[in-house]
Design a protein that fits this description.
Layout (H helix, E strand, L loop, with lengths): L6 H13 L2 H8 L3 H15 L4 E4 L2 E4 L1 H28 L5 E6 L1 H6 L1 H11 L4 E6 L2 H9 L5 E6 L7 E14 L14 H5 L3 E4 L4 H10 L5 E5 L2 H9 L5 E4 H10 L3 E3 L7 E8 L7 H12 L1
Parallel strand pairs: 3-4, 3-5, 7-8
Antiparallel strand pairs: 1-2, 5-11, 6-9, 6-10, 6-11
Helix pairs in contact: 1-2, 1-3, 1-4, 2-3, 6-12
Keywords: DNA-binding, Transcription, Transcription regulation
Family: Belongs to the LysR transcriptional regulatory family.
Protein name: LysR family transcriptional regulator
Length: 294
């Protein structure tokens, strides 16, 4: 009877090639590092060749290891197609997809993407979890969702990502706030010293703001959603920095006023994120393709 290599060992080997160390590979695949090391050792014994050279600075693939990585990618891709097909059969022909999305994406972009996906795949069943960016990544790493959408200036670690859209953060205030009537732009130094209404720690918006300021924002009030921040600001509270997507309607209606900023770059990227093989396939791949086209 033929004994086949364990899929998780192949995933770990590919992850070492992609991330440079066995420790990073273990985190990406979601196994403990001692188990990852044993899995690679079993794979080496099974194939009868050394695949990795381990050192304190990381793990380097041998020549044989590089070849096996290329073959492993093909095997994992075929395995993913098998899994997706089996899932579809088990659900009477209907694909299933669990998506976790940050609030900005979930509120303003994801509905249109899912509408297009359903037009292409009428039988698909989609479950959406609305989380902040840190929670989306955690759900991915714990296997509680198939695909995530996150926001922020930097790609999260431990997952594969691709940019699907770009966004801009803007400073907003109530029409009655003194900043709504000022003639000169607000500077970064002023923002650093000003109490703001902010999203909670772990949200992509909060992370992007803190990075842009170079220091944690001073929070007069932390709110768990974009909508809550908008209401607090428009009610006459402190200013806030939010996605333009989240405040477009309020700016158009005059409920909020955009305040120019002099010396701060607040553009950011919105990303799809996933674990497993780097090549995303099935309905998750279809949804990412739709997001990138739109």
């Amino acid at each position: 009877m033929t004994t086949w290599p364990e899929p998780v060992a192949l995933e770990l080997l590919v992850a070492v090639a992609d991330h440079g160390s066995l420790g990073a590979a273990a985190r990406v695949v979601g196994v403990a590092q001692p188990n990852a090391s044993r899995s690679i050792s079993r794979l080496e014994r099974h194939l009868g060749t050394t695949l990795l050279v381990r050192s304190t600075s990381g793990s380097t693939l041998t020549g044989a290891g590089l070849l096996v990585v290329d073959w492993a990618r093909e095997v994992l891709s075929a395995y993913a197609r098998l899994r997706d097909g089996a899932d579809a059969l088990a659900n009477t022909g209907a694909g299933r997809l669990t998506v976790a999305a940050s609030q900005t994406v979930a509120e303003h972009l994801l509905p249109a993407w899912l509408t297009t996906l359903r037009e292409q795949n009428p039988d698909i069943a989609v479950t959406v979890h609305v989380r902040n960016t840190a929670e989306v990544v955690q759900e991915l790493l714990e296997g509680r969702c198939d695909l995530g959408f996150v926001e922020g200036p930097n790609a999260p670690t431990g997952v594969h990502t691709t940019v699907v859209a770009r966004d801009e953060l803007v400073l907003v205030a109530a029409p009655s706030h003194p900043w709504a009537r000022r003639r000169s732009p607000v500077t970064r130094a002023e923002l650093v010293e000003t109490d703001l209404i902010t999203r909670e720690e772990g949200s992509g918006t909060r992370v992007a703001l803190d990075i842009a300021l170079g220091t944690p924002a001073r929070s007069a009030l932390e709110m768990p959603s974009n909508a809550a921040v908008r209401v607090a600001v428009s009610s006459g509270g402190a200013p806030a920095v939010l996605s333009r997507l989240a405040v477009a309607d309020a700016l158009a209606s005059g409920a909020l006023v955009q305040v120019p900023i002099a010396d701060l770059h607040l553009a950011r990227q919105l990303r799809a994120a996933w674990t497993g093989p780097r090549q995303l396939r099935g309905v998750a791949g279809d949804l990412v393709a739709i997001a990138r086209r739109r």
